[in-house]
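Hi everyone, sorry if this is the wrong subforum. Our group has a chain we'd like a structural model of before ordering constructs, and none of us has done structure prediction before. Sequence below.
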Amino acid sequence: MKIQKLSIPEVLLIQPSVYLDNRGSFFESFNEKKFQELSGLDIHFVQDNVSYSKKGVLRGLHFQLPPFQQAKLVQVLKGSVLDVAVDVREDSPTYGKYISEVLSEENHCQLFIPRGFAHGFLALTDEVIFSYKCDNYYAPNHDSGIIYNDPSIGINWGKEIEFNISSKDLELKHLF
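Answer:
Right subforum, don't worry. Here is the predicted structure as tokens:
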């Protein structure tokens, strides 16, 4: 397993060791001890979620308000996504900045998104199975988000795909 800090250093790109042979592949998707040793973080995940999306589905940008903020470890089990994390910590030097990474079943990469970040993804392939671990339980009364096309953030989602966005996500507000 390799862990790389990104342009927002609290967001980590994780590349697991993948073992290939004539039968297919194997990789350890999560090992708490290794994760803690390599990242220096003491994270305990309490909830796993899986979503299925068709090409063009854009989910997000979601986060939970205190005291129910969530750190997430996300990965793609099938297909490919453009995964995005936006810093919503008002006291942070990277407040309002974002990172984006392509996560796919081929690259096996994962993204660790700490508490205080909004998260979303765009399905790039016909079918996407997306998995994420959370370190806090979902609290519907603390659910929040940012509109995907907030011009003050300027996320480059790409232009090749027609978006399919839920009515709930289309009603989200701007960050600034």
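For your construct planning: DSSP finds two helices and 13 strands in the chain. The radius of gyration is 16 Å.
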